[in-house]
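Exam revision sheet. Question 4 asks you to relate a sequence to its structure. Input first:
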Amino acid sequence: MVAKSTYFYVEEVGYFKTRSTYFTERENLNSYLIIFVLSGKGYLEYKGKSYTIYKGQGFLIDCMEYQYYRADAKDPWEILWVHFNGGTSYGYYQQFSKNSSPLCSFEENTIVPSILHELISTHQEINIRTEPLSSKLLLDLLTEFLFTINIPDSSETFVPEYIKRIMKELDRGLQEKITLDMLAQKYSMNKFHLEKEFKKFIGISPNEYVISNRISLGKELLKYSDLPVSEISFKTGIDNVSHFINLFKNREGITPLAFRKKWQGPEETKRK
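Answer key, structure tokens:
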């Protein structure tokens, strides 16, 4: 399996006809969320501001931030949604967030719902095409969101080629021990400067990037394979299974086995 961190990847995706009592409230979830409204009306509280969201609108948020969204009691939402991460999600979100609002209003003939429906179809059956196709669709989706806003200065989010090469190297070498000293020597840079530059453009340090990728790969293996946790730990590049379990629990709030049970349980538990 190709490491999911090589691509943009889907964590959850679906269609949901909400009830009048529907709401979600959370924070500190390592994920990005896109919701597109097919019909109805709802409300979002995010970064200290409140928004009303109608048919033909959508929003993109970082789920590490506190968020509260709910359906209107008289005219509840019908929505398409996707939780995603990986690739350069952080960079795209940072560029998008230069807009003053997480909301986007789309033209009547927008392809956004078609992209989301195709993402849902793609994940009905997991196969060798799922990862690259999902990544392409997510990139198309993010591009549509960026097209709807006016970005003051997109040059600030330009990621240098050497940073992209480091990311690819870290993506490919999850089972290897790639240290900051090794990267600094290879790219002829002071290791502290390299770490500072990587964090400037990607938002996290190289070490945190590797850990995030390993946890992401572990989550995919837990969801879509029957491999034991010890083997999953090894495949993510973590030799000590106890360390993997503790790291996973610290990042996700539940143990690997509890995560697998949640995802491989009844279909209803996967609903947004």
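Marking note for examiners. The chain is about 40% helix and 20% strand.
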